[in-house]
Amino acid sequence: MSRENPYIDAVVVTFNRLEKLKSCISAINAQSITVRTIHVVDNNSTDGTREWLLENAKTLNITPHLLNHNGGGAGGFNAGIRAACNVGADWIWVMDDDVYPKSDCLKAVVNSPFFVQHTKGIKNIGFLSSRVEWTDGSVCLMNIPVSKWPPNGAFHEAPSALPCLSNSFVSCFITREGVERVGLPVKEFFIWYDDTEYTRRLSYNFECYYLDNSVVVHDTPNNNLPDYSQITHQNLWKYKCDIRNVAAFESAVGRRTDKLIALRYVLKNSWMAYKASKSLKIYRVLLLSGFRGIFWHYKKLIEYI
């Protein structure tokens, strides 16, 4: 049964970025339409975030979830989406702590025909996603959704709603029905590609749309895509997750050609990283992580509410 005024809960995952988190919370609370609550999942921060959350929870409409370990983005969103569903949320608005929604971001979603139809009982939506801009107003390259039609290049040409296959967790509005059908994000992905894998699950089962008039700003250090030629020993851990997770996702489709696609991704990017870094250690680590991904049956780890 549908509610006349659906419960919309925000979920923000944070780790040691208190000042950005404050800006994110402020932007959510400044929306022209208010959320029911803001679930903030803290990945065991050590910069005063936990104390700030507890001190300001009541005045800032925050429901804190303080993890005793760093579960990465995947673990954080797993916990946050679960928590929102456990208290009856109809829509779960997920984002990182460096995302600042513009004041009418939520209103644009609520006024969309997809949200209106959902409220009337037509439960065919898995997620709706926002336009993500970088700090200078340009499109944030790492957060362009994958379209069904037209191709990606047309996404930001017209202020309209377009069907899409996958999206990042940078302002994604997920329906409760979607979570109940496909489960939660795989927390073992830790970071990178957990959002793509999860939203693909949703789009395989529901209609999913990008809304160009729902806008957020993503406050990242630069507006670049992940690039294996920029790998270092310091950021290697991130690329280990990426190469494993992408290989696992592609291999899980089940066709032999998909395993070949996964293998090509592993070999190509491992070699690119080696050419740039001249490090045999980096090369070996990426190859091993990628091969583990190809044979990783992660779907058995999917949790349901």
UniProtKB/TrEMBL annotation:
GO MF entries: glycosyltransferase activity
Classification via Pfam families: Glycos_transf_2 (PF00535)
UniProt key word Cytoplasm: no
Secretion signal span: none
Residues covered by the Glycosyltransferase 2-like domain: 10-111
Keywords associated with the record: Glycosyltransferase, Transferase
PANTHER family per record: GALACTOFURANOSYLTRANSFERASE GLFT2, RHAMNOSYLTRANSFERASE WBBL
Family: Belongs to the glycosyltransferase 2 family.
Name recorded for this polypeptide: Glycosyltransferase
Source organism: Brucella gallinifaecis
